[in-house]
Structures are given as structure tokens and as C-alpha cells.
UniProtKB/TrEMBL annotation:
<feature type="domain" description="Formyl transferase N-terminal">
    <location>
        <begin position="1"/>
        <end position="188"/>
    </location>
</feature>
<dbReference type="InterPro" id="IPR044135">
    <property type="entry name" value="Met-tRNA-FMT_C"/>
</dbReference>
<feature type="binding site">
    <location>
        <begin position="117"/>
        <end position="120"/>
    </location>
    <ligand>
        <name>(6S)-5,6,7,8-tetrahydrofolate</name>
    </ligand>
</feature>
<protein>
    <recommendedName>
        <fullName>Methionyl-tRNA formyltransferase</fullName>
        <ecNumber>2.1.2.9</ecNumber>
    </recommendedName>
</protein>
<comment type="similarity">
    <text>Belongs to the Fmt family.</text>
</comment>
<dbReference type="Pfam" id="PF02911">
    <property type="entry name" value="Formyl_trans_C"/>
</dbReference>
<dbReference type="Pfam" id="PF00551">
    <property type="entry name" value="Formyl_trans_N"/>
</dbReference>
<dbReference type="InterPro" id="IPR005794">
    <property type="entry name" value="Fmt"/>
</dbReference>
<dbReference type="InterPro" id="IPR041711">
    <property type="entry name" value="Met-tRNA-FMT_N"/>
</dbReference>
<dbReference type="InterPro" id="IPR002376">
    <property type="entry name" value="Formyl_transf_N"/>
</dbReference>
<comment type="function">
    <text>Attaches a formyl group to the free amino group of methionyl-tRNA(fMet). The formyl group appears to play a dual role in the initiator identity of N-formylmethionyl-tRNA by promoting its recognition by IF2 and preventing the misappropriation of this tRNA by the elongation apparatus.</text>
</comment>
<dbReference type="InterPro" id="IPR036477">
    <property type="entry name" value="Formyl_transf_N_sf"/>
</dbReference>
<keyword id="KW-0808">Transferase</keyword>
<dbReference type="InterPro" id="IPR005793">
    <property type="entry name" value="Formyl_trans_C"/>
</dbReference>
<keyword id="KW-0648">Protein biosynthesis</keyword>
<feature type="domain" description="Formyl transferase C-terminal">
    <location>
        <begin position="214"/>
        <end position="316"/>
    </location>
</feature>
<dbReference type="InterPro" id="IPR037022">
    <property type="entry name" value="Formyl_trans_C_sf"/>
</dbReference>
Length: 320
């Protein structure tokens, strides 16, 4: 099929590679403008742009697609290019720009979105991380027929993926990216064969919104239960990460591994205040929480590297 592809990060790159490998004609790629990155803050192309250029695919990088928005000249140029290319379908994966109605209406088969959630669970910006943070037992990918709403379109195809007990944001991202790439290839094959999956409206029950991840969420709040904090540590790996304060450090220490333990002690024993370090050894740093103990098992000091607890604690005690 003649496909226009819209996406930006690594999650989307896997889908683009799969579509190219399946023999689809990628008419063009839309991706976010180059952003400053790295220590030198040099402008860097997105993973999708890099893959498109390597494959010789034309790239469009409008700052907006709204004809009545802040950058109408960008939107008009993109519309003109897409009209000339006349794609049969647009595939969208973590693009990062809102698609106005003119984009949704332009391809003959509309716009299909690869969404990293079993809709209607976790509509919005960060479905992968919010699923882990909430303690979901299963996640997945939904191929959705896009409409003007926020992830509200009809569902065409769903793939489930159970969450492992040690699932992190990084591991679930990689698994769902691979699932999504396979799923969109299957859907386009059926669409091309005239056997398109029947659209299923999303149920109204069970809708959740996955808010955008913020760096302000990184500090661990030990007034919360240990099980919640352990899930957050895993969910926010690698971004935005989680942090805690430790005596001797001017800046917060990053926390990359943690597990929830039951509260120690018994009847008649004082319960440590949340945030109190109750033990420190090769197995980890144990911190009291509102319910149970959070054992921190992997840390990173400012300007350092990730370390297992045994290595970190040995150096930490040496500097005390």
C-alpha cells in the first residue's frame, strides 16, 4: 500500500522498519523537528527521521499541522505535499502533534494509530509507564482508527502482553514496540486484501488517562506505601527516573531498583517515621514508608553511574 507514516521516537521507528520490510511503499514520513540533545545540545534528528533518510524516504517536519494555528505556513506546506503524494492510509505512532480533521480525512483509509495500551485503558501521553505504576497485570497494543478525540477512535486490532513482576518502563516499551510493529503489518495486509478488521467502538467503562511524565514526579514520597513506590521506580526507568535524599549528598540520589518488604517489628515496637533509613547493607538501603519498607537495590550518585546496592553502600560507608 501507499503509506504516509507519522512518528518520532524509537517506539515508532520499529513500526516504520516493519512496514518497509513488509514491502509497503512509504510515500513520506512526518516527524517532529530536530531537537537539541546531548551535552553539546546539538540538533539531533529523531529515530524515525534517521530511519527514513537511511531508506531514502522524503521527510516532512512541520511544527504544526493546524492551518489556523501558530505555524500555518508549515501546515499548508504539509497539506500540499500530502495531497500530491496521495497516500492510501496514514500510520501514526507516537508522533507528538495533534492531527486536525484535514489530515484524518486525506487518506482513503484514514489514519491508523498504534497505541501502547489496551484501549480504553490508558488513553493519553504515557500509557506504558502509567500501566506499571498502577499495578496492571496486563498491557498491550491497540490499532485504532483515529478520530478527532484523544485516543477515542474505533478499535481494529488488539494484542495483549502480560506484565512481568520486574517489568520496567524500558522493557515494556520494547515489548510493545515490537508487538505494535507486527500488529500494524497484519492490519495493513488485511486492509490491502479487502479483509479489514471490523471497527469496534470503545466502551465507555474503564477509561483512564495517562498523564504526561514530569520530572517533578521523580522524588519518592515515602508517605506512600512501599508497593506503590516500588512500582513507580520500575515504571519511571529510564525516564524520568526516581530519586531520594541521602545524608552526605547535596543533590538527590537516583533510585533504579527497589522492592517492597513488609514492615519489620511487632507489637509494642515503635514504627519508624516514613523516610527513615531503618537498615543499610549489601542487600540494599531499607527505608520506612507509610506501609511497609522500601528496599532500594540499585542507585546512582550525582555524576556517577548505576550501581547495585552492595557496591553503592560500600562506597557510601567509606566516605562517611
Amino acid at each position: 500500500m501507499r503509506v504516509a507514516f507519522a512518528g518520532t521516537p524509537e517506539f515508532a521507528r520499529l513500526a516504520l522498519d516493519a512496514l518497509i520490510g513488509a514491502g509497503h511503499r512509504i510515500a513520506c514520513v512526518l516527524t517532529q523537528p530536530d531537537r537539541p540533545s546531548g551535552r553539546g545540545m546539538k540538533l539531533m534528528p529523531s529515530p524515525v527521521k534517521q530511519a527514513a533518510l537511511a531508506a531514502g524516504i522524503p521527510v516532512l517536519q512541520p511544527r504544526s499541522l493546524r492551518l489556523d494555528g501558530k505555524y500555518p505556513e508549515d501546515a499548508e506546506a504539509a497539506r500540499s505535499a500530502l495531497q500530491d503524494l496521495a497516500p492510501e492510509v496514514m500510520v501514526v505512532a507516537a508522533y507528538g502533534l495533534i492531527l486536525p480533521q484535514w489530515v484524518l480525512d486525506l487518506p482513503r483509509h484514514g489514519c491508523l494509530n498504534i497505541h501502547a495500551s489496551l484501549l480504553p485503558r490508558w488513553r493519553g501521553a504515557a500509557p506504558i509507564q502509567r500501566a506499571i505504576e498502577a499495578g496492571d497485570a496486563v498491557s498491550g497494543v491497540t490499532i485504532m482508527q483515529m478520530d478527532a478525540g484523544l485516543d477515542t477512535g474505533d478499535m481494529l486490532y488488539r494484542v495483549e502482553r502480560p506484565l512481568a513482576p520486574d517489568e520496567t518502563g524500558a522493557s515494556l516499551h520494547d515489548g510493545l514496540a515490537a508487538d505494535g510493529a507486527r500488529a500494524i503489518v497484519d492490519v495493513l495486509a488485511r486492509l490491502e486484501a479487502g479483509d479489514a478488521p471490523a471497527p469496534v467502538p470503545q466502551p465507555e467503562a474503564g477509561v483512564c488517562y495517562a498523564d504526561k511524565l514530569l520530572k517533578s514526579e521523580s522524588p519518592l514520597d515515602f508517605s506512600r506505601p512501599a508497593v506503590e513506590l516500588a512500582r513507580r521506580v520500575r515504571a519511571f526507568d529510564p525516564f524520568p527516573g526516581t530519586t531520594m535524599a541521602l545524608p552526605g549528598f547535596d543533590q538527590p540520589v537516583k533510585v533504579w531498583g527497589a522492592q517492597a518488604l513488609p514492615a519489620s517489628g511487632g507489637p509494642g515496637r515503635d514504627v519508624p517515621a516514613p523516610g527513615t533509613i531503618v537498615d543499610m547493607g549489601p542487600d540494599g538501603i531499607d527505608v520506612a514508608t507509610a506501609d511497609g519498607v522500601l528496599r532500594v537495590t540499585a542507585l546512582q550518585k550525582p555524576g556517577g553511574r548505576r550501581q547495585p546496592a552492595a557496591e553503592f553502600v560500600r562506597a557510601y560507608r567509606g566516605q562517611a
